[in-house]
Amino acid sequence: MITDPATQKTIMLDHLKKEASLFSAQPPQLPPGALPNAAMPALAMSPPTSPAKVEDLGKAMIEGHEVMGKRFTFQPPGAPQMPGMPQLPGMPQVPGAQLPKSALTTSEIWTSTKTQLPVLSRTRGSFGEQICHCKFTQAGEPHPSLFQVPAGYKTVTPPALPH
Question: Which value, to the nearest 10 degrees, does the dihedral of the CA atoms of residues 35, 36, 39, 41 take?
Fold first, then answer.
């Protein structure tokens, strides 16, 4: 699939048949009042047990790029309790299994001051440590040939969508 944001067109490639189908990438416009006035369903998530503590880490340089850092420390929600074992009359009681309590989790996020995108994030908790390091690439406009039907592909009319 090739999507060109400048022309709002999408090209769907079938590599087996060497065919390309062109589509408009713009979502269809609905007439005013076409959507019902129903509220979005609420997410079934429990609120955090305590608000996150936010610490400003200031400015730094990562691979020659200026970044701003923040550290978020929070207590994740507790694990659900395991149900107890069913008991037969006259059998001794067996305590239910207990899951370990959650420890504090910290997330350190370094954001580029130029692009406002995260460059480095490090999250530590009872699960261990997770690091995501985004590498920089050449900035600028992509070459127009990246948004064209490849050589050797035949352009076909896409099938009509059902109404």
Answer: -80
Q: Which residues contact 56 (CB under 8 A, 6 or more apart)?
A: 69, 70
- pLDDT for the residue numbered 43: 39
pTM: 0.45
- How far apart CA 158 and CA 153 sit, in angstroms, is 14
Question: Tell me, what's the pLDDT at 122?
Answer: 94
Classified as helix, coil or strand, 15 is coil
In the predicted model, residues of the chain with pLDDT beneath 50 are 35-48, 97, 99
Res 58: pLDDT: 95
CA distance 116 to 43: 28
Segment (H or E) for 52: none
By the 10 Å C-beta count (0-12 exposed, 13-18 middle, 19+ buried), 32 is classed as exposed
